[in-house]
Amino acid sequence: MKLTHHLKGMAIAAMTVLAVSAGSANAAEKLRIGTEGAYPPFNMVDANGELQGFDVDIAKALCDSMGADCTFVKQDWDGIIPALNKRKFDAIVASMSITDERKKAVDFSERYYTNKLQFVGKTGMAMDVSAAGLKGKTIGAQRATISGDWLEKNRADADIKLYDTQENAYLDLASGRLDGILADALVNYEWLQSDAGKGFEFKGEPVFDGDLIGIAVRKGEDDLRMKLNKAIKDIVANGTYAKINAKYFPFSIY
User: Which fold has domain 115-210?
Assistant: First the structure.
């Protein structure tokens, strides 16, 4: 009889431990992170079909800091904000610039890096990036980016070609179909280090400085936004951010 009671007690204790463990596992917030996967070195797809890059590494570090269970969703850039608002994922970590126009559709975290826009063209070929200098020149940029918007507002006399991905813009530049490209300086920096970018260089000074890159969440989701802000501060303070930064750039981009 005593043994039966003892076994029952052990069984109840084991069930309690399992229940507590299950409760702890369920307590981890599940988050889906949307990113483009076509914007190296920030987000791209490797040979195994896995999403990689600075954005992905930062998102994983933020999820660890928040104790969240995160999965990634690949999404074309053009539809990334509509997909967020249709609840395909919960946050966008895809090198998205914080702009007044986008703030009408989404809310943003604090910045997780800072960027600027700069032209790239053929090495040794004179390229005046002023409005007068680019008149009649064919200049590329990615569609629905601040680079494309800036060109249309400030270099309207150029022949502006907009692309679905940054990679396709670079392909046309390398093949001679473009005189130049305007893009994020950090993305250009990465491309100029590659074999495809040999024979090209930065042209002129940055035309737009202090571009703040943030994480987009749905309007009114302040709890998630505040958690992300705290996690960004935490990974900067504990050195995790610096380690990820050093993997991609020999200088701080924060």
Answer: D-Maltodextrin-Binding Protein; domain 2 (3.40.190)
